Amino acid sequence: MRKGWTAWVVGVTVSLALSGCSGDGGGGPVPGEGARESVSVGPAPADVATVAPVDDHPVDAARAALRRLDACALIDRSVTASTGMADKLWQLPDSPHSCTVTDKPLIGSRISVQAGYSLSRAQRYRAEPITAGRAKAYLDRAELPSRCRVDLPVGRTLSIRFTYELAHGTTGDACGSVKAFAEAGAGLLAGGGPAEGDPGKRPLVDREACTVMRGALAADAERFTIAENGIYALDSCTATPKDTKVLRRGIDLEVKYTTDPMGGTNVVTRAVGTRQARVTTYSGACKLEWSQGASGLGGTLNGFTVVALKAESCDAAADLAARIVPLLDGAATPDGQEPARRLLYAPEESDSSAVGACVDFLADDSFPCTPYDSLPVPATIQGVLDGADDPRMGCALAADAVREVLGDAYRAVLWGQSCFFVEPTHTSVLRVDVDARAMARAYGGDSKSSADRREVDVAGKPAVTFRTGGGNGKPATGYSVYVALAGDVNTPGIVAGRLEALPARGLGTGAVPDTTGLPRLDQVMTKLVASRLPR
């Protein structure tokens, strides 16, 4: 079977599309050269976990606990002076479960908290792991030097997010400031928790947007996949249709504290139940915004509790809105879920369902990731080629060489038909694969996707090397070495390695990786060929 080197994705913005390793032709068996005894290769290094970590932080219990929190109470005012914020502060709740404190509305330095942020595995993979107080946390320097974020995970999909942003035109240590607020907030949570949110003072703080969405859709909810969406996880929800032939786009619901949606001129309105909604039309969508009433917060920027609903058509949105209004007017329906007694993770606790070394690997869901355990290395090249369809073959061949050159931090995992060596800093990923049909000469020649192609000798065997990625003045981020197993780059049968450099964790979108370590792949492949492949 021909092995395709499909793309694997690290994070949301970094796509590591590997060169296709699907040789251009068939060809008969490649005769093995020489002979030696089969060697059993152990784990790379020892990681034979086969069971996902126990989840001691059920997300439903975390949601129940987050519903009770007053997000503003998580902002410790004693920290503001040490971070350089002015003495006079404004408290501006943004939604039932989020809050901002600033020393000047709109333009001042600000600390914001979202009690219930949808923190994906990709975001955790890219962020820098830190300890906030005595809790596991992730730091992300965001897109701008003036902004920094810390997430306190409270489940495998949720966090409490702290964001600090410096006032426009000022300088300072945004990351140092947000860490101070996160540590103080973690201390409050560990010490019994801050004040609970009062529905009388924080309208709809006892609700979740997705619970409201399910209640409004009723029996139709089965037609959708319903999940939190956006920054305000508990206060925003998307219902994605399971059958896009019937319904082309999803339904978005958001609750926030903001200005009167009926303000302004030339406002188009429509009745939704007992409310009047502002209508905004888009290409293929319609948004309705209405006020559930005054927020009671006393500010001009957040004086109304506003619900925004976007659907495929205005009629569909109005029909659903008419069902949402009475749900929000009435008392919250208890769901019987006991809140989590302990929200935060200890620094050493796993907040991932990944097994073993797979916690340091990120890809799409087309294949599961499993830790590599072991596979005997065949005594002949023919044996290696015969086992090429087993993804463990690449791991078995490279395990010792990787350990000697790159170190014990690199551990092997299997994804799809390939072997990957991953490490906890997430600054590089090595892929090693064996393909019985591919020819080395077929790779690296496309000037649009690769550069610096060379034909070289690797421990007595011919090989092709080339670089990929980069461009626009940036250095290449990938380096590949394709070794011809039969001693001829025009003959099918290769062992291929690719080392990809990734930005350091926590540096944010657009960070440039350190590529100085890419030449180490030459050492890995040289040791692999010399020790595992007979001449």
Automatic annotation (TrEMBL):
Which domain of life, per UniProt? Bacteria
Know the name of this protein? Lipoprotein
